[in-house]
Write a structure and sequence with these properties.
By secondary structure, the protein is mostly beta strands. It has five helices and 28 strands. Strands 9, 10, 11, 12, 15, 16, 17, 18 and 19 form a nine-stranded mixed beta sheet that branches. The chain has a five-stranded mixed beta sheet with strand order 2-3-4-1-28, with helices on one face. The chain has a four-stranded antiparallel beta sheet with strand order 5-6-7-8, with no helix packed on it. It is globular. The chain is about 5% helix and about 45% strand.
Length: about 475
């Protein structure tokens, strides 16, 4: 159900956020045929590693594999933080011998192509950034890939909310560790909400390019500097309460703009970083747009709604649109387990946002669980004990929405990717993600299954 590129690879993928580390020489690390997009580099501590992307057309799930050479390794965690147009931001966490700073986090940009993939490490943060934020949380990082001479990219971290102009520093709060007991903020009469962004811009090009340098271990290090930008947020007066209780759930890239979103308060912050060589900081503000939700909270206590709400990008480059999917349910048990009991129900609502003209959300469709169950000729395709979670809209066929559905089992829950056609209101297919048998805990993917069988994560979409 996914179109293919000229090279025979899918035009877009759903990436598993679990990174499959396979060091053993037992064939568990995929060969070149299975995972042709691969590259190697070194951590800042001098340890080599190789990454390989195994692409698959949705509803199958793509995987990122990592292999390290034999022997003791200080790298303890590999994560895929974000992605855009075939670029993947990978974070590697390693032990150090420094007791005051026991961990070191390196960021790598992985360019996945069929012919010549690249993996380069970003330079270390400036001392100012280290002192203020230590490291970045994955849900606050956005990545923009621009195709041109070489491949230009920008990484932007949504760091802090501040008051503009410079008011009392005690009114500042880190977004990733918000102290909700201190809300609401008391802005000065002429004060305005703003934000600080950490920005890095560079080029990905050939290995002989002057935009790259090598460290003492031979690893490629991107050239460029981290910047800190302080920008006002454009919002209406009635939207201020959304920002006062903001808690970032994630970031996506939409028409070269990075969009951070808060599913609880139903808001989107967006910023367009300037191209390399541009004078100034690009847009001199951050835009704010509300999502089309009816139950906007009046308090600031966050709820974990990323299981049931999703902001997705559809369409081709230059003609992209935003889709918002909301799964509302009546189950008292669904908040943590994603399951339904007798008498429970759910409703799926889809909206589309067009950035031109009045910039309004338009409701596409609203589907009830009764409709899906009634129209599903094979009841097993749509289990009645499970809620559709982590919705993800197809980039090529926006009438298809992918969901994760979990069915409880004694040892290992069965987890499936269920594809629903929101136009015909039918279940199109079911793809197994975790089979749900006790034998899964003894298989080659036992590490992933232990992490995901009870607590699934959303997939990371990326277009090539």
């Amino acid at each position: 159900m996914s179109l293919s590129t000229a090279a025979g690879f899918p035009s877009w993928i759903m990436m598993d956020r679990f990174v499959f580390r396979r060091d053993d020489d037992d064939g568990s690390f995929p060969d070149d045929d299975a995972a042709p997009m691969r590259a190697s580099s070194f951590t800042s501590l001098g340890e080599p590693f190789t990454v390989a992307l195994q692409p698959a057309a949705p509803p199958a799930v793509s995987r990122l594999y990592v292999r390290c050479p034999p022997g003791p390794q200080r790298a303890v965690a590999y994560e895929v933080a974000t992605a855009h147009r075939g670029l993947f931001l990978v974070r590697v966490t390693s032990y150090t011998v420094n007791q005051s700073v026991p961990y070191r986090k390196d960021y790598f940009v992985f360019k996945a192509t069929a012919h010549e993939s690249q993996l380069e490490r970003l330079p270390a943060f400036s001392q100012t950034i280290v002192q203020r934020w230590s490291w970045f949380h994955n849900n606050t990082i956005g990545l923009v890939s621009r195709i041109g001479d070489g491949e230009e990219y920008a990484l932007v971290h949504l760091a802090e909310f501040i008051e503009i102009p410079g008011r009392s520093q005690k009114k500042r709060a880190e977004i990733s560790e918000f102290d909700y007991d201190q809300l609401p903020w008391r802005l000065a009469s002429d004060g305005k909400m703003g934000a600080e962004l950490c920005v890095f811009r560079s080029h990905l090009s050939s290995s002989s390019s002057s935009s790259q340098s090598s460290d003492d271990d031979g690893g490629v290090v991107a050239q460029g500097n981290w910047e800190i930008l302080t920008l006002p947020i454009q919002y209406r007066e009635e939207e201020l309460c959304d920002l006062l209780g903001w808690s970032t759930d994630g970031a996506i890239t939409f028409n070269d703009s990075i969009c951070w979103f808060d599913y609880n308060h139903g808001g989107i912050l967006s910023y367009t970083p300037p191209p390399l060589g541009a004078v100034g900081a690009g847009e001199s503000f951050i835009s704010y747009v509300r999502m089309p939700i009816d139950n906007r909270p009046i308090n600031s206590i966050p709820k974990k709604l990323e299981m049931y709400r999703s902001l997705c990008v559809i369409g081709q480059r230059g003609d992209e649109q935003l889709k918002f999917v909301d799964v509302a349910h009546s189950s008292r048990h669904a908040q943590f387990y994603g399951r339904l009991w007798n008498g429970d129900s759910f409703t799926i609502t889809c909206h589309t946002f067009t950035p031109t003209g009045d910039q309004m959300w338009n409701k596409d469709v609203m589907i009830t669980s009764d409709e899906l169950w009634r129209l599903d000729p094979r009841e097993r395709l749509m289990p009645r004990s499970a809620l559709p979670t982590f919705p993800l809209v197809s980039r090529d066929e926006p009438h298809l929405v992918h969901f994760l559905m979990s069915e409880p089992r004694d040892e290992v829950d069965k987890v499936s990717v269920v594809v629903i056609d929101i136009i015909t209101r039918t279940v199109v297919s079911v793809f197994p993600y975790i089979q749900g048998g006790e034998e899964d805990l003894c298989g080659k993917d036992a590490d992933m299954i232990k992490h995901r069988c009870r607590l699934p994560w959303p997939f990371l979409p990326s277009r090539f």
